[in-house]
Design goal:
The chain is mainly β. The protein contains 6 helices and 39 strands. The chain starts with 5 loop residues before the first helix and ends with a strand.
Length: about 750
């Protein structure tokens, strides 16, 4: 989504030029505990989250943001950085959540947050802070999340079990001009939801709608077998090992932060931020692959184990093959940012330096298994095709296994200047120069003919390829690149109410370490992202409006497609471009006392450029994709947000939030699609007294059910092939179900 806030158009101060307005970044229909993704017209990417000016995690795979950051009582502020500010200060693309730790204050202060829902969620967050005398201050925080999810699973009690502890000690010095803080954080998290809630079966009707398969209710029925254990082959050693899904998803992090701020009397300010994090990051995925219809001609002999341990023929109609990706890595990262800023009479100048170092030893061990597809809503069971094998797990590391080890370093210098040239003209501009180095190894091995071997069954370091000659040994990586970003925004006030605004950001990046994870090397040419916007704004006593036309594109996107033909899955690497034209109108109104209405409309048309790839399967079939000119999968063309709220009394507020996402394509060839959908929220907030506030929120209060995202194993399906497909069982992701949440906040 491409939009600009009214605050930017008004150019009231430097902070408004940094942050986007009118967005509740934590009101999320995809997750109960993480920040929402703000669309910018490009495919889904990392949700950038900063705390105290530094990224919470350097890379979100395998160490996700949610594993050691939550929007809880430990934070004094949560906002949304603009795309231009994110680009200049971090070198990343998109909006960024901007948060700051609650540090100690004079006196004694405490905040206790509690959240529950009707599915059994219990979430606690406690912050205590105060002063110790002689300009010493403390702050301590505890976060506990016990989330069973919206359906029961057997692999663990909770779909999210996270605990985070923080402690900060602050010293003010030189008559309050300076402030030094030392902070420690420990987190332990098991994000089971990454593999438990990402897929389910449904009937694809053929007109963009879906209906439930038997008694399988989307969002409230588990699609996981009861057995939590997995067998896999270690990518590093080749050993067969066993783990539980809960243990495989464990994240833990231990980090130390040092922060110093100093303000001189002449308007000059300096801040120095440093953080060292030693972590184990992990993400587990259970990706649906082929869906086998046993009523069609076949040679399979699927059997399931009975309660007595005997084997009996499987009598169901469908079998779901699933790939489990056990992603994990040992991580050490050191992040430091130093920034000088100077306030003048009509401008603010800022100069910053980043030194970010990321060291990782990462693997993704993959394994396949087959399961039943029950129609009665019961738990699935694992199956064995005795015509092919005698074990549940097979094709170890064949489809999506990954390996890389080494370090990535970014040393960057940046500056911004926010300048009120005259009472009518504001100019905001900045630039970033970044030296990126990457050194280590991966498993992109070529054979004697110079072709990449790719993955195969029992693929691991030390294995011999199917040609009987090529040995899988680490490939050395050593790259250095100069990246750069610049941004400029101009606002012209034609009169006190009406004016023109425009901005342009240009980002140049290179691949990150995680792009070297497949068994082939990525395209290392520069990735350029130009973003331009221009339009008008209008403000009066009861309304603020901004309307902008926009353009964004991105070159050299690296991707690996897992293409499916029959029961075979092959990985196809490719590089492609994307471009998007758009129009956004953002309105904030106060028509009567107590009533606030926010309205946001976006039209965008993201399309693929140079999107072509092909791969040959073992039976000789060549799977080809040419999606050039197609609309980007999973990205809607129309987005509407409507957020009214009303203060019934000075203490009671009722509010709703409606978000409409237009038709989206569920595969790259535009063969399958999902109709537009609504995401709805509503609630009541009551300030019971000066210390206690209560709230009730209803997620998906229209109780809309259905599918979203992509359809598993459908990338090679063409429009012509899909035209006659109606009322067919498929698997994919789905909408978050109707949920009632209760919140309470106690402050002392």
């Amino acid at each position: 989504m491409l939009s600009a806030s009214v605050a930017h158009a008004q150019s009231e101060n430097s902070k408004s030029n940094k942050e986007e307005g009118n967005r509740n970044v934590m009101l999320n229909a995809a997750s109960a505990n993480g920040p929402r993704e703000i669309q910018i017209g490009l495919p889904s990417a990392d949700v950038n989250v900063l705390e105290n000016g530094l990224p919470v995690t350097y890379a979100t795979n395998p160490h996700s943001v949610n594993s050691n950051w939550r929007s809880d009582a430990s934070l004094s502020h949560v906002g949304l950085l603009k795309i231009s500010e994110t680009a200049i200060t971090t070198g990343n693309i998109g909006y960024a959540v901007n948060s700051f730790t609650q540090l100690g204050q004079k006196g004694f202060h405490g905040t206790l947050n509690y959240k529950a829902n009707h599915f059994g969620l219990n979430e606690f967050s406690l912050n205590l802070n105060g002063d110790l005398g002689k300009d010493w201050y403390y702050s301590a925080n505890m976060y506990q999340d016990f989330d069973p999810g919206t359906f029961n699973i057997k692999s663990s009690i909770y779909q999210d079990r996270t605990q985070i502890y923080k402690a900060a000690l602050t010293k003010q010095y030189n008559e309050g001009r300076g402030r030094f803080t030392a902070m420690y954080r420990y987190s332990n998290s098991h994000p089971v939801y990454t593999f438990a809630t990402q897929s389910a079966p449904f009937i694809y009707v053929g007109d963009g709608s879906v209906k439930e398969y038997g008694k399988f209710a989307l969002g409230t029925t588990s699609y996981l077998p009861t057995d939590p254990n997995m067998t896999y082959r270690d990518m590093r050693t080749g050993e067969l090992k066993e783990t539980s899904l809960y243990d495989a998803a464990e994240n833990h992090s231990s980090e130390i932060s040092l922060m110093n701020h100093y303000n001189w009397d002449n308007g000059l300010s300096w801040k120095m931020l440093m953080r060292y994090d030693h972590a184990r990051g992990a993400m587990v995925y259970q990706t649906p692959m082929s869906l086998i219809d046993l009523k069609q001609p076949h040679t399979h002999n699927y059997q399931q184990q009975t309660l007595t341990g005997a084997w009996a023929p499987y009598t169901g109609q469908y079998v779901q093959t699933r790939m489990s990706c056990l992603n994990s890595g040992d991580i050490d990262e050191f992040l430091a940012t130093s920034e000088l800023s100077k306030r003048f009479s009509n401008s603010t100048l800022r100069l910053g330096l980043n030194e970010w170092h990321y060291n990782v030893d990462y693997t993704s061990n993959t394994t396949m298994y087959d399961q039943s597809v029950p129609t009665d809503g019961s738990y699935a069971t694992r199956l064995i095709d005795f015509s092919q094998r005698s074990n549940y797990f097979y094709d170890f590391n064949k489809n999506a296994s990954e390996y890389y080890k080494g370090h990535e370093n970014k040393l960057a210098l940046y500056f911004t200047h926010d300048w009120d040239i005259s009472p009518k003209v504001n100019l905001y501009y900045g630039a970033r120069l970044e030296w990126q180095t990457l050194k280590g190894e991966n498993a992109a091995v070529k054979n004697a003919a110079g072709n990449y071997v790719g993955r195969f069954a029992d693929y691991h370091l030390g294995a011999t390829a199917p040609d009987g000659v090529t040995k899988i040994t680490p490939t050395t990586l050593d790259y250095s690149w100069l990246n750069y970003d610049f941004s400029a925004a101009l606002t012209y006030k034609l009169n006190p109410r009406f004016g023109f605004t425009g901005d342009f950001t240009y980002i140049v990046q290179r691949p990150r370490f995680e792009n070297f994870s497949p068994a082939t090397l990525p395209n290392t040419n520069k990735i350029s992202v130009p973003l331009g916007r221009g339009g008008i704004y209008y403000n009066n006593d009861w309304m603020s409006l901004t309307s902008l036309f926009s353009y964004i594109s991105k070159t050299n996107n690296n991707s690996t497609l897992n293409l499916q033909h029959g029961a075979e899955i092959m990985a196809a690497p490719l590089t492609y471009d994307i471009q998007t034209w758009g129009w956004t109108t953002d309105v904030m109104t106060h028509p009567v006392k107590g009533l606030d209405i926010h309205f946001l409309f976006t039209y965008q048309k993201p399309t693929y450029k140079k999107y072509e790839t092909s791969i040959k399967f073992s039976d000789g079939y060549v799977g080809k994709i040419n999606a050039t000119g197609n609309i980007v999968a999973e990205v809607p063309q129309y987005i509407i947000e409507f957020d009214p709220s009303y203060m019934i009394t000075k203490d009671i507020k009722v509010w709703t939030s409606f978000r409409y996402f237009g038709k989206t394509y569920a595969n790259i060839n535009e063969a399958y699609y999902f109709n537009g959908r609504w995401e709805t929220f509503g609630g009541v907030n009551w300030q019971a007294n000066k210390r206690l506030s209560l709230g009730c929120t209803v997620v998906n209060f229209l109780n809309q059910t259905g599918a979203k995202g992509s359809i598993a194993g459908a990338e090679l399906i063409t429009k012509q092939e899909a035209a006659g497909i109606k009322n067919v069982l498929m698997t994919g992701s789905y909408l978050r179900p109707f949920t009632v949440e209760f919140t309470a906040t106690l402050k002392i």
